[in-house]
Specification:
3 helices, 0% strand, 94 residues, single chain, 72% helix, mainly alpha
């Protein structure tokens, strides 16, 4: 295992000590490893969400290119359409 020196705030040092004292972790290294594992997991979730968002954007672009765009005469009309679509999705998922 690699050894690394890091500087942390007193608050983070206290958090690490509290975690070890709780008995859930056996050492400060375990706490740091768990934190880094969670950070890595969070990064992967963000990556997957971004990938999904890009796919959804591409679907919209493709629809526009096929002439499948909907136009609305006002913001109120658009808001009503969004609300109706949202309600439809809620009903389908429950």
């Amino acid at each position: 295992m690699a050894t690394m020196n890091i500087s942390i705030t007193p608050q983070l040092a206290q958090l690490i000590n509290d975690k070890v004292t709780s008995g859930r972790y056996h050492s400060a290294s375990e706490v740091i490893r768990e934190g880094l594992r969670l950070l890595k997991e969070q990064d992967e979730i963000r990556r997957l969400r971004l990938e999904e968002l890009r796919k959804e954007i591409q679907k919209g672009v493709d629809q526009l290119e096929r002439g499948e765009a909907k136009t609305f005469s006002s913001g109120e009309e658009l808001a009503a359409h969004i609300e109706a679509e949202g309600r439809k999705i809620l009903v389908e998922n429950h």
